[in-house]
Design goal:
By secondary structure, this protein is of the alpha+beta class. The chain has a domain of about 180 residues: Glutathione S-transferase Yfyf (Class Pi), Chain A, domain 2 (Up-down Bundle). The protein is about 55% helix and about 5% strand. Helix 12 crosses helix 13. The longest helix is centred in the N-terminal third of the chain and has 31 residues. Bound molecules: zinc ion (ZN). Zinc ion (ZN) binds next to helix 16 and helix 17.
């Protein structure tokens, strides 16, 4: 059998799939699976991994594959029918998932199987261990009434989280600003202005990330920056211009539901519940880790702020920081985003990035234009190994457009599977929100964009290069959440290397490579602002950990006060009283980072440390890359990730490489 077509049958048919059809498919699948599980458990045959776990794995795989286009399309398409389909499928799916995890018969079967397994190194053992923990975390041991309560809480929670995220998007989409005078727009990038301009020479600025970022970083007009800052930081709140999407009640609701969920299965609060599946051992360990990092960072951040204040010659407000950071970078390092961008057309960046994957992991990436996609600008890429076999594929959806969720992410379309020879290749979605191509079709990326793209590509490699055929522990599945950002942040580092960046570059007019001199400036400017950026991330992480660990059900009104107290401890920058950042903090209120935002910093330590091994030898060292692949990228959730790291690095992780990378090392001494 040739492999070339075997994956295509597993892909959603984006040329014809309708929301209605997707919904019908999912509903009938859940119904079918419920019956199949009943039958499976009634069957008095011998209970083995093959007779029980494999069929369940098959079903979970099929379910995830069927739901994937629904959750994906509601994120990237501006079509209400996908959103309503998603909203109607979500409770069904959550319900079914909990029901499965509360199935006492099934848990008993898994216990029997693990008791008969001798080899603790067998991936099967790890899978069973994980699933048994999952049963417990979902209340398998509760009474019938409490089980039902747990299930209700969980369904209500997933609905509240979905509402949260939709409020953020609607509130973002609803805002715009009309400008008639070009003078007011000085500094904003050409591409942004070109898109915002109507045919009567007026500009409609929207609140998508590229526009927001360009205004905050480049707009000379201070009051324009302030208006954008206010619009952005009050999204989905009582302070927004339109308050109909206020997330305040949603947050109260989400925090209360999470707390009750944790309590019902015996955890003191949601933070402890969340840590049950993570690498970190306790909330204290995390808070100490963040405090330590903050302490080591503060003097660097203070110095940066002093430099910015001098440059501004007035008191700095929140909407001045990015602007003067950029300005100071231009002055001190003579570098600008705009100049750099000219060397980074999308096509070349893609080519250079794929070359890195080829050198490091011996895979070729090739576009397949025959695969149906959901938007003209989307590409499908096949991944081919050194023996010329297709081993997976992914979609790339790079550009911002109306109705598309902001941010950048990787998501699974199909998870790798090999169950008794029944195989599926891994397929993923890589989504970003870069500035769309100009009217000549040219898309120039900022260096920030390039770093983001490498980041998501790192997640994608984790998903694609896995050797594990059991879906529950394949790719990113079963990997502790605080280790998930290791492959992505590891990959970011390559976007800061000259050899790599040179290969990614080609001036869109002169066709010249990125000059070494310009790169050196970029490199020198890299760490300017690193202290402030670090503190900001620590602030978010501490807020997240505090709000979930110190939650008090009787006084469920402390969202903003908690943030204020964290800011007092961490932040050096004054925040306006109208700032309602939590109301759009989707990572923790609707994404998977609840009581887990610290994972970014946690994994960044691992990533910087892993990368320092390459810096110590050669940046594109194949042998080292192979080792990284073997110990980290391929294992999914089949082995202990800390052990994998130790195997790769020859020791436990150290904080120093990250501090050094950010130019903070030794600052506290
Ligand atoms: Zn990431």
């Amino acid at each position: 059998m040739t492999q070339s077509n075997s994956y295509k049958s597993t892909l959603p048919d984006f040329s014809s799939l309708t929301a209605k059809e997707a919904q019908t498919n999912l509903k009938s699948l859940v119904k079918k699976q419920r019956m199949a599980i009943d039958k499976l458990l009634k069957n008095k045959q011998k209970i083995t991994f093959e007779s029980v776990v494999n069929p369940i794995e098959e079903m979970q795989h099929e379910l995830s594959r069927t739901f994937s286009p629904i959750s994906h399309l509601q994120n990237v398409l501006d079509q209400p029918e996908w959103r309503s389909t998603y909203n109607s499928c979500l409770p069904l799916l959550t319900d079914y998932g909990t029901e499965l995890s509360q199935n006492t018969e099934l848990e008993k079967a898994y216990k029997t199987i693990i008791d008969n397994l001798d080899d603790q190194k067998d991936p099967k053992f790890k899978l069973l261990e994980q699933e048994l923990r999952n049963f417990t975390l979902n209340g398998v041991n509760l009474t019938k009434t409490k089980k039902q309560k747990f299930k209700d809480l969980k369904t209500r929670l997933s609905t509240a989280e979905a509402n949260f995220s939709q409020n953020v998007q609607d509130s973002t989409d609803a805002w715009s600003l009309h400008i008639n005078n070009e003078d007011e727009l000085k500094g904003i990038s050409r591409e942004i202005l070109e898109q915002a301009k109507d045919n009567q020479d007026r500009w409609k600025l929207i609140l998508d990330y590229p526009t927001y970022h360009s205004v905050m970083t480049h707009a000379e007009n201070r009051s324009l920056r302030e208006r954008f800052y206010k619009a952005w930081s009050t999204r989905a709140s009582d302070q927004a211009e339109d308050t109909q999407w206020n997330n305040e009640e949603n947050i109260k609701n989400i925090l209360s539901l999470r707390h009750q969920l944790a309590n019902i299965v015996g955890y003191k609060n949601f933070a402890e519940y969340s840590l049950a599946t993570k690498m970190a051992n306790s909330t204290n360990e995390i808070i100490d880790f963040l405090d330590d990092l903050a302490k080591k960072t503060k003097s660097t951040a203070r110095n940066e702020l002093t430099i910015l204040e001098k440059a501004a010659d007035h008191n700095l407000e929140a909407w001045d920081i990015s602007y003067y950071l950029e300005k100071t970078k231009q002055q001190n390092y003579a570098i600008s985003d705009e100049e750099l961008k000219q060397y980074l057309p999308k096509e070349n960046v893609q080519k250079g990035m794929f070359n890195v994957a080829k050198t490091l992991y011996a895979i070729s990436l090739r576009k397949n234009s025959t695969v149906p996609v959901w938007h003209d600008s989307v590409e499908f890429i096949e991944v081919i190994d050194s023996k010329d076999h297709i081993i997976g594929g992914f979609y790339i959806d790079l550009f911002a457009r109306n109705g598309k969720r902001s941010g950048a992410w990787m998501d699974e379309c199909v998870i790798k599977k090999n169950l008794n020879g029944n195989k599926a290749l891994p397929i993923g979605y890589l989504v970003c929100n870069f500035t769309p191509p100009d009217k000549n079709g040219i898309s120039l990326l900022t260096h920030d964009d390039v770093v983001t793209w490498f980041h998501e590509f790192g997640h994608m490699l984790h998903h694609l290069l896995t050797k594990i055929g059991l879906p529950s522990i394949s790719g990113i599945n079963g990997v502790p959440w605080d280790a998930v950002e290791l492959p992505s942040q590891f990959m970011e580092n390559f976007a800061w290397n000259y050899e790599v960046l040179k290969d990614c570059s080609k001036h869109h007019k002169t066709e010249k490579y990125l000059p070494k001199e310009l790169f050196s400036k970029l490199q020198a400017s890299r760490n300017f602002g690193a202290g402030l950026a670090m503190l900001r991330q620590i602030e978010f992480a501490l807020y997240d950990m505090t709000i979930h660990s110190a939650y008090d059900i009787k006084k469920n009104d402390n969202t903003l006060r908690t943030l204020e107290s964290v800011r007092k401890k961490i932040t050096l920058i004054k925040t306006p009283s109208y700032n309602r950042f939590p109301m759009s903090f989707s990572h923790i209120f609707s994404g998977g980072y609840a009581a887990g935002y610290y994972s970014y910093k946690w994994a960044e330590v691992l990533a910087a440390d892993a990368f320092s091994a390459f810096e110590d030898s050669h940046i594109l060292n194949k042998e080292l890359a192979n080792k990284f692949k073997r110990e980290i990228l391929e294992i999914g959730g089949s082995k202990d990730i800390m052990q994998g790291f130790i195997n790769f690095r020859g020791r436990k992780p150290s904080l120093e490489p990250l501090l050094k990378q950010c130019g903070i090392a030794g600052a506290s001494r």
